[in-house]
Amino acid sequence: MYLNSIFTNPERLERLLDIAQSSFLPLLEGAIQYTIPLTLISFTIGLILATLTALARISTVKFFQIIARIYVSIIRGTPLLVQLSILFYGLPTVGITLEPFTAAILGFSLNVGAYASEVIRAAILSIPKGQWEAANTIGMSYSQALKRIILPQASRVSIPPLSNTFISLVKDTSLASFILVTEMFRRAQEIAAFNYEFLLLYSQAGLLYWIFCFLLSLVQGRLENRFDRYVSKA
Amino acid sequence: MIAINNLHKSFGDLEVLKGIDLNVEKGQAVVVIGPSGSGKTTFLRCLNILETPTAGTVAIDGHMADFSKSLPKKQIMEFRKQSAMVFQHYNLFPHMTALENVMEGPVTVQKIDRAEARAKAEELLTKVGLKEKMNEYPFQLSGGQQQRVGIARALALEPKVMLFDEPTSALDPELVGEVLQVMKELALEGMTMVVVTHEMRFAKGVADEVLFMDAGRIIERGTPQQIFDHPKEERTKQFLNLIQNADTI
Ligand SMILES: Nc1ncnc2c1ncn2[C@@H]1O[C@H](COP(=O)(O)OP(=O)(O)OP(=O)(O)O)[C@@H](O)[C@H]1O
Ligand SMILES: [Mg+2]
């Protein structure tokens, strides 16, 4: 048995520690080179996309509403792995070839855009109508009211659900391994394929994901505190 | 200053304003009274185009809006600048301090230099008695203080006309006076204002004219003495009885 062998065989334990140590840097490198940039870039593009989609959903123009609905429905109704496969393996058959990293950015951004748009839409709708009216009465245009009055308040409401989206995204980037992006999980796969220590390497990768997500939840707490400075603590 | 001609407003099948005509001279304070649902709020909101009237014309200080045609956005924005609204529930921006609330219009809309806008906002807040509270967020202020910030915010844009929709009706009784005092000073300085309120003392002391509105029409108008002490219309009498009785219960 695996556990048994660790405790009865000191050489085996030593080998495992060696491997853990030597694979730590490659894993971290995968994270720094791909996992983290993939997350940050996709989340940024995704949020812009999400805001535009949310605005389209609440606009009075039927055409925008319909486009936004279809987009959200398609993305939410199909598996991420299928979307990535279409972008990377499917598109080349119609002459569009994407780099693995580009395909991944595109796929994750589209995903964040769809999921976060619902969060942002709900947050915008939760701001009382009186705020729009107050903005109008001091002469603001729609875009000024949105930028100065509505979105700053909506962001406060959306921090917890958007943090969820962000943390899911960190973990979802492991799916990019499937389209040949050598992010953290793919590094773990590659190393394990070489030395057969699957349990060790996958656990190590898992631990790193967990640490990232834990750090993020700390950031979330700080952000919430910052935004809460203008609401009554009562 | 304000010339309103045959103003109509419907929400779907519900006709709320059934042809309002009114002229307000520069520097006049007009108080509007009337039963709940008679259309007072809607009337004020139409003057600031927070609701778009269905028909009629309104001219404020020479800026004319004809609502029988659909107006371009630009013209609506320009027209809106002539007046500013003070809301029943204040509607302050909760994420901005009192000072930032007042500066917001001048800075974002009028593109006035921040330092200049700040000086002006400080002056206005001092005027409404909130010099000490400038850097507080709305949640840290009492209702009366919030409403005074609301008034300062509206004044910051130097509107020709101030519109007040029951500015004291959400306030605890002991806070009503401080807000009415600010409004009274404004009136004395010659601000043209249209005020929906049931504060009789304010109406008697400050108003040049009182309008009684019922079911979307102006039923009776006159000086405060005429309306409160010698109402002619039966409905005006009934209404005044109702609010006076409520006061004595
Ligand atoms: N946005 C709206 N959509 C549909 N109906 C509305 C809308 N706003 C107001 N109404 C209706 O118009 C009528 C007049 O409302 P309004 O708020 O102007 O009355 P009011 O005189 O201000 O009453 P109160 O003294 O209670 O404030 C009411 O019957 C109300 O239900
Ligand atoms: Mg009302």
TrEMBL record, chain A:
**Localization per Swiss-Prot or TrEMBL:** Cell membrane
What is the membrane topology noted in the UniProt record heading this document? Multi-pass membrane protein
Keyword Transmembrane helix among UniProt keywords: yes
Specify the ABC transmembrane type-1 domain's residue ranges.
32-220
Residues spanning the membrane:
34-58, 70-91, 199-219
Q: Which UniProt keywords apply?
A: Amino-acid transport, Cell membrane, Membrane, Transmembrane, Transmembrane helix, Transport
Where it mainly occurs, coarsely classed, is: membrane
- Tell whether Ribosomal protein is among the UniProt keywords: no
Q: Which family does it belong to?
A: Belongs to the binding-protein-dependent transport system permease family.
Q: What is this protein called?
A: Amino acid ABC transporter permease
Q: Which organism is it from?
A: Planomicrobium okeanokoites
TrEMBL record, chain B:
An example of a Pfam family matching this protein is: ABC_tran
Subcellular location field: Cell membrane
What's the main place this protein lives?
Answer: membrane
Q: Start and end of every ABC transporter domain?
A: 2-240
**According to Swiss-Prot or TrEMBL, what is its membrane topology?**
Peripheral membrane protein
Checking InterPro entries in the record gives: AAA+_ATPase (IPR003593), ABC_ATPase_HisP-typ (IPR030679), ABC_transporter-like_ATP-bd (IPR003439), ABC_transporter-like_CS (IPR017871), MetN_ABC_transporter-like (IPR050086), P-loop_NTPase (IPR027417)
Q: Does the keyword Cell membrane apply?
A: yes
Report whether Cell membrane shows up as a keyword of the record: yes
Report the protein name in the record.
Answer: Amino acid ABC transporter ATP-binding protein
According to its UniProt entry, this protein's organism is: Planomicrobium okeanokoites (Planococcus okeanokoites)
The lineage is: Bacteria, Bacillati, Bacillota, Bacilli, Bacillales
